[in-house]
Give the backbone structure.
Amino acid sequence: MTVLSPRTLAEACSAAASNPNADLLAGGTDLMVEVNSGHRRPTDVISLGAIAELREWSIGEDRITIGAGVTFAKIASGELATAAPALAMAARTVGSPQIRNAATLGGNLGTGSPAGDSLPVLAALNASVVLTSVHGQREIPLSEFCVGPKRTDRQPGELITAVRIDRLNGPQEFCKLGTRQAMVISVVSVAVVADTSSTSVRVGLGAVGPVPLRAPEAEAFAAEAINWSGQTSVDTETCRRFAELVRDAARPIDDHRSTAEYRRHATGVLAARALRRIFP
Ligand SMILES: Cc1cc2nc3c(=O)[nH]c(=O)nc-3n(C[C@H](O)[C@H](O)[C@H](O)COP(=O)(O)OP(=O)(O)OC[C@H]3O[C@@H](n4cnc5c(N)ncnc54)[C@H](O)[C@@H]3O)c2cc1C
């Protein structure tokens, strides 16, 4: 097996152009599991760990740019956690401290699993994905990037270089349900974020569809129901109706982790819980 270890983004793009079918290696917490279990037999690997540009982030007035190589440990605390609290909450649920120190946001997107914990938050925060190759850069909405379970729009020779998300002014929440509290793959995950400036509420759903989903009817209902000018809080009836609308937006399937029926029910429970937490 050939392992290339470029030092710069330009070198990585050249390596990816010369070896378009090479496997890109970031933290290795998905890729090496596949290699060790015999599901993937790479012939060429391009290791991205030495590229400093991929580990940078910047927090702008309206948008936050996070390099693909930023780990969940970095996202879970500090200024990124203050700027994107729901993403930090999701990051804190990923694996264990060892996994979070290695696992990257770009790797979560590269795998593109419907159960990837960053994905519902990225959906709620109107994320776009920046892809770079020797031919230049393109930026596409998350909804175009994720095309199916573990299928993305990334083309051979392209690297995910960054993710851009909205910086909102308001409370955010992420709730995840699995068979345990820790080290668990999501059966359902729900992100609810509010923006007091635009008086809007956004919902992202994970593990209940082939790609991360939004819940537009529930979002419109919540935006209407919340008294933005007063002390923001929600009553029981608002939570109940919100839960119903979020549940209706889910498109779950039966699999070895859960039945579709249980996933649909749990989606509503988590949605109401998240709304109650952000508007107590
Ligand atoms: C014990 C354990 C627990 C876990 N728990 C969770 C969990 O709770 N929640 C969760 O969401 N995930 C979990 N995971 C899965 C994994 O940690 C995440 O998906 C992680 O984000 C993968 O990132 P990585 O940097 O390790 O990616 P890698 O394994 O290096 O790569 C993953 C995929 O993305 C591609 N890729 C990586 N970087 C790029 C790039 N810059 N451009 C293009 N393609 C790229 C790779 O080629 C590969 O196909 C767990 C894994 C393990 C082993």
